[in-house]
Amino acid sequence: MNAAPVLCCTGVSLVIDDTRILSDIDWTVRGDERWVVLGANGAGKTSLLRIVALYLHPSSGTVDVLGQRLGRTDVRTLRERIAFSSPALAAKLEPTMTATEVVMTARYAALAPWWHRYTDADRARAVRLLAEWRCEALASHPFPTLSAGERQRVLLARMLMNEPGVALLDEPTAGLDIGGREELVGDLSRWARDPDRPATILVTHHLEEIPPAFTHALVLKDGRTLASGPLAEIVNSETLSEAYGLSLIVDEREGRYTARSH
Questions:
Q1: Averages of pLDDT over each 10 residues, the chain, 262 residues
Q2: Which one-letter DSSP state was computed for residue 110?
């Protein structure tokens, strides 16, 4: 595994319309780590992920991704090495695209197939990735016609199109039923155990969606770091009670976490 840093945030703050969203975030992610980002609504999770994905600039602080500093590099080129999946990004994809085209356009971090030239090798790789995620039969289907679970697996295939250096997932289980959620958690757990997969950061609201084999956790509260470190040390009743402002009992069983009010 690669233990070199792939992400380093130093003193990252974000202010939008006089509202402070993030304050002094220090965070380092290494190539062999799988992180989950937790926190209440409004804690700053998605904003932090968008900064790391190079779609948002911090108001202050530095962000280094894959050895390049935000503000001193061509983000369009660097984004091609960052796998990013979010409900907002999925909603921007050209709706006429097939599943194959959705995966293939990640070659240039594009949202539509018209602005770049794609080769037969690009298309063949996209189909192979769909097969890897059990979606080969959907290759020619329009993306909007797929079920929520199928769309999410296609987006996971898309994330691997460029053999990225880091993978960012913003609430990938949103909109899934229990069956779809459990299938995706299983997929992500297998992903986490594969040493050939890139460093991974997952934003979620729910502890039961943390895949087994994830290694670290970052907990945000009011835009600040409340706790950060190895998952088993961070995801506990005391820390999460403070994060969510509610007395919680956090349990772990066979690598799966749950929380209930005290």
A1: 84 95 97 96 93 94 94 88 84 92 90 90 95 92 91 89 91 86 90 92 92 96 97 96 95 93 86
A2: -
pTM value? 0.90
Domain locations in the chain as residue ranges: 89-163
Phi-psi region of 64 (alpha: psi -120 to 50; beta: other; left: phi over 0): beta
Enumerate the H helices of the chain as residue ranges. Answer: 45-52, 75-78, 87-92, 99-104, 120-132, 148-159, 178-193, 231-234, 237-244
CB 212 within 8 A of CB 235: no
Q: What's the CA dihedral at 228, 231, 237, 239 to 10 degrees?
A: 0
Dihedral sign from CA coordinates of 86, 236, 226, 229: negative
Would you state the structure tokens that stand for residue 51, as one six-digit string?
């900064």
**Two structure tokens written together for 203:** 């934003």
CA 129, 56, 6, 26 dihedral sign is negative
Cα–Cα distance, 108 to 106 (Å, whole number): 5
Residue among 209, 174, 206 at smallest CA distance from 192: 209
Cβ proximity of 162 and 82 under 8 Å: no
